[in-house]
Amino acid sequence: MTIVLTRCKISIRIAEVPIINADTLQQLKSLYAEAFDDSTEAREFFFARGFCAERCACIEENGRVVSALYWLPRTLCVSGKRLKCGLIAAVATLKSERCKGYAARAMNAALVRMRAAGLEIAVLYPDIKGYYERFGFVQITNKKFPSADGALSKQPGGLFAAKPWRPEADGAVELNSAPAPTLLSLYNRRMAGADVYFERTIEDMRYKIDECLADGGEVYPVMRGDEPVGYFMKCAEIEEACIPEQSELDNISQSGLVPCSLLPAACGHMFRLLDTGITDARKIAELTKKTFAGKKILILDRY
To answer: Which of 36, 129, 165, 279 could lock onto 175 through a cystine, CB 3.0 to 4.6 A?
Structure first.
């Protein structure tokens, strides 16, 4: 179904499932490039491996894409229950068309479609505060991410970062000395004890590895002695840090290899329950906050 709104002789099309032809796809890529400073390789990887028309909400004005967002399928584990989740990413509007309500229309359309698809919760990691609350999102985590001003170095009995694991010379998705199963095992070990976290499959971990490598990044093992106990995925900045305890970073000296100090993020992860039967955004936010109150939440994904 396609809804067409006409106002001031401007035709605005909100596609329930966008018809993505070659021209529309190129417009989506151009919008992404304008809004985000990701490398060309990272952008192409996203559209080759992460993009799906059924998980894209875009707004078109007279045949021109002016706003879009995407969501990735995830499973959120909450106190032993597995919830179908949409991890929202790359919310963007053309610079020339901002402050006209296009992103809000895209978000509302996405939430309707996610709920219709049977998803139970939406999660996003915004870089601004004060916007997504109007849709019923509430900040659940006070996330901190590693900064770029320190590094793990070898200390007697402590953690240190070894040289990065390298991919196979032929470009295979597996890493030579650290296959995806190894990273998945380290990830699952880190999630143990958390009440709320994203479940990962071996395919999810391979995607994360390939995404990092496609952006010119590297995967560093974090060692204790001869045993890998965690890892970093580092591109232009740390994309993911999975180590035994984030607090241990504060006690490790710096040597200029891998970032280790923690900086507060602009905004933590925001959650929104989808299947509530409630339309009031404030009440949805209250119910969402109550659902996750008092739980140990450990989310490494930014998008």
So the answer is: 165
- Tokens at 265, concatenated: 């993020």
More confident residue, 28 or 247: 28
Contacts of 278 (CB under 8 A, 6+ apart): 284, 287
Query: For 259-276, what is the mean pLDDT?
Result: 72
User: How many angstroms separate the CA atoms of 39 and 60, rounded?
Assistant: 25
Task: Kindly indicate whether the domain formed by 2-141+266-292 is annotated with CATH number 3.40.630.30.
Answer: yes
Is there a contact between 14 and 2 (Cβ–Cβ < 8 Å)? yes
Same CATH fold assignment for domains 2-141+266-292 and 144-263: yes
CATH number of 144-263: 3.40.630
Structure tokens at 262: 């923690």
Report the sign of the C-alpha dihedral through residues 234, 238, 239, 240, in that order.
positive
Give residue 282's pLDDT: 96
Predicted model pTM:
0.83
Q: Is the pLDDT of residue 150 over 50?
A: no
pLDDT at 260 over 90: no
pLDDT digits 0-9 by tens, 186-237: 999 999 989 999 999 999 999 998 898 888 888 888 777 777 888 888 776 6
The rounded distance, in Å, linking the Cα atoms of 49 and 72 is: 11
